[in-house]
């Protein structure tokens, strides 16, 4: 197998390989599947017993919901609602977090069902993506009986003219950090700060994926032949030994 294609991390059927990590570290464009994998990792985080109090309140909708709703023709709206939204309503979730992937841009819509309010998070100009938000609002109006969204024009972060080559591929990473901040109950960081620290964010995220991926691979015995753990456990007498010093 090509070394660059070896899996680093897998969650909900989505995988991140070494080639994807290269793009993450050097600032290249990330595939939409990679962003969905990052979002899926947050859904997995929600299911941990320690986060039960958070999981009772929030639901992260898969990005396939927005893709279907915003791009499909002859859409069966009730089927889309049943597949992507209804289960969260039935479970009594208070807040739906909807990652939006459309026209090569990632942004996030937070829908507070109890307060009947929406909040839009985007690292690019809000007006350019307001149509996506309105389409989702109108869909929810039609599908959820006796529920009317009262939308507050909450635009989180500054409107950024994303013209710099170093930053123009970061919207998916921003979407991941928007969702993470919402779940953790933190104020979402200023977008300008995100841009200034773009390389640090990418490096930190890469380190997180590698660490979580190593644990995932060890638990499932899916170590690659060049992983240190593989060499230690299966490398024979020539394998390097780990010496602990206190």
Instruction: Give the strand order of the largest sheet, numbering strands 1, 2, ... along the chain.
Output: 3-4-5-6-7
Overall pLDDT score = 78
What do we call the CATH homologous superfamily? Adenoviral Proteinase, Chain A
**SS elements, strand count:** 7
User: In what range is the share of β-strand residues?
Assistant: 5-15%
Task: Compute the separation of the termini in Å.
Answer: 39 Å
What's the CATH class label? Alpha Beta
| Approximate helicity band | 40-55%
Largest sheet: 5 strands, mixed
Write the CATH architecture name. 3-Layer(aba) Sandwich
**Structure annotation, total helices:** 11
Overall geometry: globular
Helix and strand sequence: EEHHHEHHHEEEHEHHHH
Kindly name the structural category: alpha/beta
**Total domain modules:** 1
* CATH fold-level topology: Adenoviral Proteinase, Chain
The quaternary state of the protein chains shown equals single chain
Segments where pLDDT lies below 50 for 5+ residues? 146-167, 236-246
The radius of gyration is 20 Å
